[in-house]
Amino acid sequence: MAIDRFIPEIWAAELLVALRKALVFAQPGIVNRDYEGEIAQSGDTVRITSISDPTIGTYTSDSTVITPETLTDAQLTLLINQSKYFAFKVDDIQMRQAKGNVIPQALSRAAYKLADVVDQYIAAFYTSVPSANDLGTVSVVAATPTDAYDAVLVPLSVKLDEANVPSDGRWTVFPPWLYGRMLKDSRFIKVNESGSSAGLRNGEVGSAAGFTIYKSNNVVNSTGDDYEVLAGGSNMAISYAEQINKVEAYRPESSFSDAVKGLHLWGSKVIRPEALAGATVSQT
Predict the structure, then answer these.
(1) Looking at the predicted structure, is the pLDDT value of residue 267 above 70?
(2) 69 lies in which domain range?
C-alpha cells in the first residue's frame, strides 16, 4: 500500500517509531559464531566432526595385552538454509511532502524485524533439550514469588551440573511474567539479602543460581499458560552463522521513487544439546 498519509499539516517532523521487544536469544552470550568465517568464505555448509571417547582399561604389569581401539566419529551439518528479505519504496512526491525522513526509520525497523526472525528461531530450540535435562512442567504460583528461584532456577542448575556442563557463562531466558515474579522475591530486591554489596537497587534481576537471567517476549508460549524456558552453559550449545547480510538502495524503473531492499542468509543449529536444559513453566 502506498504511503499516502504524509501530509505536512498532519505529520510532525519526528516519525513515531514502533515499540520493540528485546532480542536476546541470538546474542553472543547465548550462541556462538565459531564456524561463521568458514561459511562466509567457502560455501553454505560446514560439517562438524566429533569423535568417541577412548575406553579406559585396567593395566596389569606383565599381563595386559594392549590392543588399540578404533575410534568412531559422528558428523553434524550446519547449513545456511534460512533466507529472508525486505523491500520497500517511497514515492518522490510523498517524500517531498513528508516532514520526517521515512527511509532511515523504515530501514531500522526492517533490520529489527530480520533480527526478530532469528531470535524466534533460536528460542524454538527448546525442543532440542535432552529428556534427561528437561524438568517437565513446573507450576509457578503467583502467591509464591520464591517459586521462580526454588522450582525453576535451582533445578535447571542441577540438571546442567549433572550433565557436566561448565558453570561459567550459564544463562537462561524468562518470559516477562516470570521475570516479574522474581522481582517479588525479597532475595533479589533487598541489598542486605542479595549477598552483593552492589545489590539490586533498581529491582533488576541480574543473576541468580549461577545464571545470567534475561527476559524476552520471544520465549515460546507452547500452549495456554505454559512457556518454554531455555537455559544453557555458556554459548557452546548453539551455533549461528550468517553468510550474506546486505542492503541496497535503488531507483525502480517503473516509478519515481527511492527503494531499498535487504537480504539476510543465515543458519543456526544445536551442536551440543547436552549443554541445554529446559522447563515448561506454567503460570498459575
Answers:
(1) yes
(2) 24-56+65-81+128-244+264-284
